[in-house]
Request: fold
Amino acid sequence: MGNTHQGLVVWTAKPHGAQLHSALKSLLWLNSQARCEPISEHEVGFPCHQVSDLTGKQKQALASMFPHHYGHAVRLIIAQGASVNPHERLFRAVHVWMAERGIPFSKSHEAGLPQKWERLGDLVVINKASFSNDAWQKTLHSEVGHSSNLWERVARALGGERLAQQAHIMDNALRSPQLKLLHGAATWVEFLDHGVHFGFDAAQVMFSSGNITERHRIGSISMEGETVVDAYAGAGYYTLPMLVRSDAALVHACEMNPASIEALNWAARKNDVGSRLLIHPGDNQTTLPMLTGVADRCHLGLLPSSEGVWQHALACLKPTGGRLHVHMNVPKAEIESWKSQTLNRLSDLAKKIGRQWDIEAEHLERVKSYSPGVIHVVLDVKCTAASAA
Reply:
């Protein structure tokens, strides 16, 4: 049984019941899971899907969607079975907002609704394409004074309290996000994931929730007693799981974005791991050489490629060897050949810095599709002192 919630029932005289049922079904409002107790032998009521915070004005707007000769009245009931499908909740929230303003809901409007989004705490982030087609541009221009109410409903339909729109990540050294806040007062977010507290300004820090499986995988690897170098720490996307869940003895976090460093310091306090975290501000081409020979493990979490610091990362490992976690975007058809080429390249670089190591792949993780035909992968590499001939 679903959670109890307020739902709509549209009532009409029985002779008009079939017509009203057909109209509600065509609008996708009919809630077949809800129950409706009869109130008279002359009327029939049809439960509709949940509409939150229903006001008298909204009732009138909903009623106006049906021909007057149905003779219906709109009343509130207690129903069961609220939709758990966020796409369906979004569709209905937008549909009601438009109905209140007498705007026809077209196929073009439906096509412009977000198909994907991220939730960062209570902040929902939709992509640039959402609500951007001609139909939506015309509607938002004509209803500019009411758009904030729309954004509030979209946020709630998608499980949040605030709403922002994300463009592409800027192609600069800081990987700066381009974020426009549509509803809410600020872009700082906080949330708990797998026992790890995260906090950051989403307008200044890049944070991909799509890599959650890899974040959890890294946090499940025991690093007890290890010193780790995170070459691209950011706001602690992998640094924090390695400290909190993997129990690393010490993590050296290299990061050049001041906003990410601020977030990482906040999270270190929140997770009570500050005594095991050393942050190295600045370009890692400068900071990594300062960490030569200290690490049991080095994490290389930059996309599309971290190859520019592979030699520095190998030098960070202790002379006896250690492990690398190499992130890369790779064409799906080339993953196996890329793995072999990467191991050969790392072997060459190790020799260049005087490390006589056997270098082998421990594991290759296919994290997610990055773009059509391209996969985000992580190669776990083990480096050990070469066996005597």
Remarks:
- The CA atoms of residues 1 and 81 lie 7 Å apart.
